[in-house]
TrEMBL record:
Identification of the protein by name: ABC transporter substrate-binding protein
Pfam families from the UniProt entry: Peripla_BP_6 (PF13458)
Keyword line: Amino-acid transport, Signal, Transport
Signal sequence extent: 1-21
SUPFAM superfamilies attached to this UniProt entry: Periplasmic binding protein-like I
């Protein structure tokens, strides 16, 4: 009569021990909403990164890796609550995400409160590893300064006048601030700045202010646009014929769907985080081949980022020898690891991943339905003086 309860207790203890042995990673990201495409790529990349780094086993030292997905719906309050749930109720070892910079900023204090690692991927705002940073935050994604410095190198020059248009929130404003500083460091400046709400679809008023500010300037004139999601300001402003004022449109890289708009701009230059044909390394070779085999399409902008985050998590746990937070921090500060973009390194001062960027020129081909970012040259870590903004 007493054996059954004892057996039941033993079974429960065994199941509990087995569950505790899992390495649990929360992926908290905007699965629904205007950045849905970014989110899907990020998750596919994360899974492929873990697969690559574990040799397909999804295990580290015999412990199985489990991903718990949570959808922020791009709402900061949701991101905060879901990260609290992941650390508290789900008892995850670390978290990765989100897509939106605004959501990320709401999540940062939660990592500090729970003393758990949050790997930020792909949210971009400088303040994430800047003024709002804490020691539990590591970012594999590029920050606004990396975009800005790379684009300043690609676009700036003597007698070049640049106006800017960006979304009026952390991503856009941090990006333009960093771009302005990067130009200033080279002795150049921004001629005019415009900011528009994230849901803007009519850019007529903003474009007219830019044209009026630029039309009488002598020299090369470029309008540099930072935009995420819908709206397509490039095509809409181009339809207003900025060339009548000698103004060329310029922008950084983007996902393949957004590159369709680039087909209107042969020869347009900028700097990009990733395009699948630009890097030359074994990790990217694997990613490109496997992605074509599995999805019949190339990996995209945020697929590479998700993969970098997945590999970073695995390599950090291997190096630390555990999922203990303090051991992970010690292992990750200064850690270098291989990604689809080549070697990345977590800078010890702010845990920002230093990484290569790519200066491109847009090439148009009849049989490709988007503008192709053709490599002008790699911009290496040593060429990108990224400010430390958390001090």
């Amino acid at each position: 009569m007493t054996k059954a309860p004892i057996l039941g207790l033993a079974t429960a203890l065994l199941m509990s021990t087995t569950a505790l042995a899992d390495i649990k990673i929360a992926h908290i990201y905007g699965k629904t909403g205007p950045f849905e495409a970014y989110a899907k790529q990020s998750h596919v990349g994360l899974e492929m990164g873990i697969e690559y780094a574990t040799g397909g086993t999804w295990e580290i030292n015999g412990e199985k890796i489990v991903i718990i997905e949570k959808d922020t719906q791009l709402k900061p309050d949701n991101g905060k609550a879901l990260l609290e749930e992941a650390y508290g109720d789900d008892e995850v070892d670390l978290a990765i995400g989100p897509v939106s910079s605004g959501v990320a900023l709401a999540m940062l204090p939660v990592a500090e409160e729970y003393e758990k690692i949050l790997i930020v991927e792909p949210a971009v705002a400088d303040s994430i590893t800047g003024s709002n940073w804490n020691r539990y935050i590591f970012r594999t994604g590029r920050n606004s300064s990396q975009d800005a410095v790379a684009n300043a190198i690609a676009l700036g020059g003597e007698n070049v006048h640049i106006a800017t248009l960006a979304q009026d929130y952390a991503f856009g404003r941090d990006g333009i601030t960093a771009f302005r500083e990067a130009l200033d460091s080279k002795g150049f400046s921004i001629a005019h700045e415009e900011y528009a709400p994230t849901d803007t679809t009519d850019f007529t008023a903003a474009a007219e202010r830019i044209f009026n500010a630029m039309k009488d300037l002598e020299g090369e004139k470029r309008l540099f646009i930072i935009w995420a999601g819908g709206g397509n300001p490039m095509s809409k402003i181009n339809a207003m014929d900025p060339s009548r004022f000698g103004i060329e449109i310029a922008t950084g890289g983007n996902i393949l769907a957004a590159l369709k708009a680039y087909k209107e701009f042969p020869g347009m230059e900028g700097a990009t985080y990733y395009y699948y044909e630009l890097p030359d390394n074994p990790v990217n070779d694997w990613l490109v081949k496997e992605h074509f085999d599995r999805y019949d399409s190339p990996p995209d902008f945020f697929t590479a980022g998700g993969m970098a985050a997945g590999i970073a998590a695995v390599e950090a746990i291997k190096k630390a020898g555990s999922t203990d937070t303090e051991a992970l921090i010690e292992a990750m500060e200064g850690m270098s690891w291989e990604t689809p973009k080549g070697t990345m390194t977590f800078r010890p001062e702010d845990h920002q991943a230093l990484q290569t960027m790519y200066h491109f020129k847009t090439v148009v081909k009849d049989d490709v339905d988007y503008g192709i970012p053709s490599l002008v040259r790699e911009l290496t870590i040593d060429e990108l003086p990224i400010p430390i903004r958390n001090q």
